[in-house]
């Protein structure tokens, strides 16, 4: 069974986090929510989520993928964690999949793991990296890095992750069950 860590920081975008968690679990992927600084994490719209584990309780080598939801100030809180940046660097060196949506590609850039091309929330690219931004895609994979645009595209992003981890058959099954066109 594939294992995915979803890192939650204060101010995360709820749609991006919960959609990813839900859809990956529908694909029978083992998803662990990880609180960066506390077990109970409040999203940017006031939704409180209890994480499965705390950041320092996790062996990140056991995960196939690490996912970073965006949102503000969630992405800033992720980007300011030296420990998280180190985990991302180590995971990248091992070729693990790293995924970030909305403002969270900024975290990948700060960790030095963002590859040549990426997507993020339109207009936010100035906070990520000027070169390499692709405006005409919703989700983009460049080597082991997957980036997505934003909240309305969270399901598309999550389904892309399912396809990446589980293949076309599981992707089509989950997509069909969600009535996603």
TrEMBL record:
Domain DJ-1/PfpI: 2-163
Organism, scientific name: Campylobacter gastrosuis
Name of the protein in its database record: DJ-1/PfpI family protein
SUPFAM superfamilies per UniProt: Class I glutamine amidotransferase-like
Pfam family, one: DJ-1_PfpI
């Amino acid at each position: 069974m594939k294992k995915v860590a979803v890192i939650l920081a204060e101010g995360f975008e709820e749609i991006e986090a919960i959609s990813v968690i839900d859809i990956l679990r529908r694909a029978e992927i083992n998803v662990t929510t990880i609180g960066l600084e506390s077990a109970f994490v409040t999203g940017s719209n006031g939704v409180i989520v209890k994480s499965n584990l705390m950041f320092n309780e996790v062996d990140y080598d056991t995960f196939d993928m690490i996912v970073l939801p965006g949102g503000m100030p969630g992405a800033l809180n992720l980007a300011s964690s030296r420990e998280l940046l180190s985990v991302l660097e180590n995971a990248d060196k091992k070729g693990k999949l790293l995924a970030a949506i909305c403002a969270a590609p900024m975290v990948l850039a700060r960790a030095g793991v963002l590859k040549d091309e990426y997507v993020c929330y339109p207009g936010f690219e100035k906070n990520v990296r000027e070169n390499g931004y692709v405006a005409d895609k919703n989700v983009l994979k460049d080597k082991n890095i997957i980036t997505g645009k934003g909240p309305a595209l969270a399901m598309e992003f999550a389904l892309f992750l399912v396809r990446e981890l589980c293949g076309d058959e599981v992707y089509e099954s989950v997509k069909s069950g969600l009535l996603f066109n």
